[in-house]
């Protein structure tokens, strides 16, 4: 685990004129017109960058956006430059690549206090493979490394882990430290009953976390795209809803494990189904066991909202990652907004509420309730893995970890 020493290391580092490779998580939601719909992750990255600017460092920012397969214009980081520049109060330069000669020239031209944003590091498949040669190329751009990408700290990728082997010192940024300080404390000894709410669409990467969560929580509520794999495992028809066919066996095991552990695992009893994946789809509420052929579940229904809300009343700590439905479409935002309101309400009554994840936080911001929560985390998967008790590779790789 990174300790206060890591921040000390950043504060003690000689930064004047030094090229600093800063991994940030600028994986923000964008709409169809490439407009940022929630800038939480950009704002969260600002304190470390401003500190580096103020100390005369030459800042090379690196991030991913989405899960592109190769170079994909839709996943370019260019639309973020105006907002980043505005927040930093300087003109941020943008590179068309993240390695190579053009990037080296732009780095060489950086003045003290200047900021260069590299293009999406996931445009190279070597990033997620944690390819050492690619990590070396990234590292060759700079003199030292700062990891402030808490949201990606659970990934052992070239820009989060590999690069630390070639860049010393490698230290945590302020956001990384703040997240760890809060989350490690909050989840090591949570006030009980402790509930986790897991939804969203990253089923295959988050379903595995559920097994360990069953060791920690008293109540586990599942919604969003996560629920249909569990429905199908129980023999329900799911129409054209999001399902991970190869996780059906795991879902069955998890249902059994919850029972044997005495964990109350709750699935929505009703679902809002749609005839297409669109804002103007026809929709109706059906029982969980009654999803019609070729319809897809895009939100939890009113009965589920009621049951989940009543259950949450009894808790003392709640961690939530993953929206309950496709909240980006008004018609399917009801479940997510109701749960957000419930958590805000409970927070005022003294329940500890932690919301993590790019889209979950966007949903809570959208209804203006972020300020009511105890902690808004920039990491969804990362906070769940911390809660599991796992060491995060991006943190472990730092010098003072
Ligand atoms: N029933 C569903 N079917 C498909 N996608 C869903 C469903 N419910 C929620 N989602 C989608 O899940 C996405 C967020 O998932 P995820 O990335 O796991 O959350 P976070 O970013 O908070 O960690 C949202 O874009 C939302 O539209
Ligand atoms: O959005 C993210 O994770 P999250 O949705 O779990 O919060 C991070 O940027 C990590 O992205 P990834 O899950 O594609 O590695």
Automatic annotation (TrEMBL):
Spell out the Pfam families in the cross-references: PGK (PF00162)
InterPro entries given for it? Phosphoglycerate_kinase, Phosphoglycerate_kinase_CS, Phosphoglycerate_kinase_N, Phosphoglycerate_kinase_sf
Coiled-coil region list: none
Name the residues that bind (2R)-3-phosphoglycerate.
Answer: 41, 122, 155
Indicate yes or no for the key word Nucleotide-binding.
yes
The residues that hold substrate are: 25-27, 64-67
Kindly state which reaction or reactions the protein catalyses.
(2R)-3-phosphoglycerate + ATP = (2R)-3-phospho-glyceroyl phosphate + ADP
Q: Name one GO cellular component term.
A: cytosol
Molecular function GO labels: ADP binding; ATP binding; phosphoglycerate kinase activity
Q: Which Gene3D superfamilies match?
A: Phosphoglycerate kinase, N-terminal domain (3.40.50.1260)
Q: What are the BP-aspect GO terms?
A: gluconeogenesis; glycolytic process
Q: Which UniProt keywords apply?
A: ATP-binding, Kinase, Magnesium, Nucleotide-binding, Transferase
* Presence of the UniProt keyword Magnesium in the record: yes
**SUPFAM superfamilies per record:** Phosphoglycerate kinase (SSF53748)
- What protein family is recorded? Belongs to the phosphoglycerate kinase family.
**The protein's name in its UniProt record:** Phosphoglycerate kinase
């Amino acid at each position: 685990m990174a300790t206060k020493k890591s921040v000390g290391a950043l504060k003690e580092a000689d930064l004047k004129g030094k090229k600093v490779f800063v991994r940030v998580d600028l994986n923000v939601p964008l709409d169809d017109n490439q407009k940022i719909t929630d800038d939480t992750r950009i704002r969260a990255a600002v304190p470390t960058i401003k500190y580096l600017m103020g100390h005369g460092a030459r800042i090379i920012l690196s991030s991913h956006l989405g899960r592109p397969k190769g170079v994909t214009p839709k996943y370019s980081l260019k639309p973020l430059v105006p907002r980043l520049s505005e927040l930093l109060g300087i003109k941020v330069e943008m590179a068309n690549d993240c390695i190579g000669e053009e990037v080296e020239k732009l780095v060489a031209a950086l003045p003290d206090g200047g900021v260069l944003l590299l293009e999406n590091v996931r445009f190279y498949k070597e990033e997620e493979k944690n390819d050492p040669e690619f990590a070396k190329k990234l590292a060759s751009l700079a003199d030292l490394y700062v990891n402030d990408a808490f949201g990606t700290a659970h990934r052992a990728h070239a820009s989060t882990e590999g690069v630390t082997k070639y860049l010393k010192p490698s230290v945590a940024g302020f956001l990384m430290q703040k997240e760890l300080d809060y989350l490690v404390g909050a989840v090591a000894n949570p006030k009980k009953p402790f509930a986790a709410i897991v939804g969203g669409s990253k089923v295959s990467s988050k379903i595995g976390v559920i097994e360990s969560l069953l060791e920690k929580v008293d109540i586990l509520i599942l919604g969003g795209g996560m629920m249909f794999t569990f429905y199908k495992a129980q023999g329900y028809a799911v129409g054209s809803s999001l399902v991970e066919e190869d996780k059906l066996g795991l879902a069955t095991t998890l249902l059994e494990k919850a029972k044997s552990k005495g964990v109350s695992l709750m699935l929505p009893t009703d679902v809002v189904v749609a005839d297409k994946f669109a804002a103007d789809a026809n929709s109706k509420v059906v029982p969980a066991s009654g999803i019609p052929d070729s319809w897809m579940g895009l939100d939890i229904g009113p009965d589920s909202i009621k049951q989940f809300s009543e259950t949450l009343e009894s808790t003392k700590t709640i961690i939530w990652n993953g929206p309950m439905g496709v909240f980006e479409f008004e018609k399917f935002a009801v479940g997510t907004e109701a749960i957000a309101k419930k958590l805000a309400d409970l927070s005022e009554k003294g329940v500890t509420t932690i919301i993590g994840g790019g889209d979950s936080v966007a949903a809570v911001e959208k209804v203006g309730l972020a300020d009511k929560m105890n902690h808004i985390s920039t990491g969804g998967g990362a906070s769940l893995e911390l809660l599991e008790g796992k060491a995060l590779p991006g943190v472990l790789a730092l010098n003072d970890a």
